[in-house]
User: Fold this.
Amino acid sequence: MSQQDFVIAPSILSANFARLGEDVDQVLASGADWVHFDVMDNHYVPNLTIGPMVCKALRDHGVTAPIDVHLMVKPVDRMIADFIEAGATSITFHPEASEHIDRSLQMIRDGGCKAGLVFNPATPLHLMDHVMDKLDMILLMSVNPGFGGQKFIPHTLEKIQAARTRIDASGLPLRLEVDGGVGLNNLAEIAAAGADTFVAGSAIFGARQASDPHAFDTIIKQLRAELTKN
Ligand code: DX5
Ligand code: ZN
Assistant:
C-alpha cells in the first residue's frame, strides 16, 4: 500500500474542547488527513461528548477536511439525519445500536455521506456479511468504546487480518479503520495486519507540549514514519 493511501485521523476526544477549532486547525496543518469525531450518548456508552452542533461549528469555522463521525449512540437514525445536515463526511455506527442496519446504512448513503459499521472487540465480523455493498468503510474497535486513553487489545490484530481477508474477497474498495490505543508503539503492526486508516486520540493530542509549537508536526511525522516500516 502506498503512503498516500494511509489515513491518519486524530480523535478530537483528546483535544482541548475549550479551543477546539484551533486544535483541529493545528492537527490538520500538521498533516492529519481526517478529523475523527466521537459521539457518545451516556446510553450506548457510559460517557457523554459532542453532537451535530459541534460538527456544524467546525464547518462554520472553516474546516474543509473530512469529518469522520463515529456514532456511539442508540438509537442511531435520528443522529444520522442530524449529522448529514451538520456536514459529516462519513458516518459509522455500531450494528448493536440499530434495529435495522441495512436501513441505517442506506440513510447515510442517501444523505451523500460515506457509511460504515463499527465492530466492538467482542462483536463478530459476520454482521457485515449481507450489507457489504452498502459499506464504504469498516471500523474495528481495539478498545471497548467510551473513553480515550485505553490500552490496545492485542487480539484485535487477528481481527484486522480477518476483516482484511473479507474486504479483499469482496473486491470492494472499503477502508479498514482501527480505533483505540493506537500509537507509535503499535502503528506498524496494525498496518501490517491490514488496516489503512488509523484513529489516534491521546497519542496525538497527548504529544502537545506548551514549550514546543511543533509538537503535532513531530508526532504526525513520526506516525507516518512508522507506516513506512512494513
Ligand atoms: C473510544 C473512541 C476513540 C478514542 C481513541 O470510544 O472511539 O476514538 O477517542 O482514543 P485513544 O487513541 O486515546 O485510544
Ligand atoms: Zn472513535
